[in-house]
Design a protein that fits this description.
The protein has eleven helices and six strands. It is an alpha+beta fold. Helix 2 packs antiparallel against helix 3.
Length: 350
């Protein structure tokens, strides 16, 4: 066999031992077969065109046979608990969502344009892999696909958490659908005091009473949403004192609110500006170093708004992006700005 072909399918360049495990032999044989078919499929195929079902299926089948037999012998050392699944979701939102999407179905611009497209992690093909096999794929990546090796970025412990989260996706989808139906029925028949809402072990809406009148820190336009980022007096005073640029942390009691509206173009105004449409949600942050010591000193909360009923509810795993119902729902994203005391937004000059 040409040496290049051996490299493609992962076989050694030199002779193999005379005695080998039957399963290993079978796996190498399957690998060789899939590798040959892959070469047949890919020769002459343009990356500028979308791969067909056969090509995509073959590339996904290659993932099955490239997992070493030894990988299947590993055991996930972490329990299958809600806490571990939630932590795995935080890892997913921080590292995987760009390609696989908030619902883990690969339905993103980046994911759809990969060759083959990013896999739907809720699919039967992915769900049949064990935690150990998923662990190996995440850590080592897969040749001839867009799946990179995450070994240098995601720790082994976090990878095990991620496998727990991936295997929880089918159950989470069913639970979210049930929760959404229950929430809609409840809000349609009752008026609401938004300040009665509280995230379990997290922030209460009432802690941000009066946020509507806080000073504007900055505004943002991201995708289809407009947002105003607001700060209470403690937050504004800290910004004016040079925090976080001076290397200091925001003081306890500093609060931020981020109000999102669906963006719309107002063609009746000169220049057809993009303006706020219906409110979408409001997100909160509160600095309390003792209360939220395990999430960088900040507590986070997300509350979705339903314009039809005029009510808020706790954000959940069915939302885009999905939110866990705890004080750490935003810590994965904000960890990327840890050196700015977990705050993305700078105080806008005016």
């Amino acid at each position: 066999m040409p040496e290049l072909m051996r490299d493609i399918v992962g076989l050694p360049r030199v002779g193999s031992p005379s005695k080998r495990n039957h399963s290993a032999l079978l796996k190498h044989t399957l690998t060789l077969g899939v590798g040959v078919l892959l070469v047949m499929f890919l020769v002459g195929c343009s990356a500028a065109t979308q791969p067909g079902a056969g090509e995509t299926g073959l590339a996904n089948a290659a993932k099955d046979v490239t997992i070493p037999l030894e990988a299947g012998k590993m055991k996930n050392p972490l329990p299958e608990s809600d806490e571990i699944v939630s932590q795995g979701q935080e890892v997913f939102l921080g590292e995987c969502v760009q390609c696989h999407g908030a619902e883990a179905r690969g339905d993103t611009t980046v994911g759809r344009n990969m060759t083959p497209p990013a896999m739907d992690l809720t699919s039967a093909h992915v769900q049949h892999w064990s935690d150990a096999e998923l662990f190996w794929i995440i850590q080592n990546g897969v040749r001839l696909t867009g799946m990179p090796a995450w070994k240098s970025t995601i720790s082994a412990n976090d990878t095990w958490k991620l496998t727990r989260y991936i295997h929880s996706l089918p159950k989470a989808g069913a639970a979210s659908a049930s929760m959404a139906g229950s929430t809609q029925a409840q809000t349609a028949t009752s008026s609401q005091d938004k300040y009665s809402l509280k995230i379990p072990n997290g922030l209460a809406f009432s802690e941000f009473r009066g946020y509507e009148g806080w000073s504007v820190i900055a505004i943002s336009h991201n995708g289809g949403a407009l947002a105003a980022i607001l700060g209470n007096p403690e937050m504004i005073d800290a910004f004016k004192a040079g925090i976080p640029g001076n290397g200091k942390s925001f003081p306890d009691g500093a609060k931020m609110a981020k109000v999102h509206w669906t963006a719309k173009v107002d063609s009746t105004e000169p220049g057809a500006p993009t303006v706020p449409g219906p409110q979408h949600d409001v997100d909160f942050m509160l600095k309390d170093s003792k209360r939220f010591a395990d999430s960088g000193g900040w507590g986070y909360g997300a509350f979705e708004y339903d314009a039809a009923s005029g009510t808020f509810r706790l954000a959940n795993l069915g939302d885009k992006p999905p939110q866990g119902n705890d004080a750490k729902c935003g810590v994965a994203c904000h960890t990327s700005v840890k050196n700015k005391d977990y705050v993305f937004t700078s105080y806008g000059h005016r």
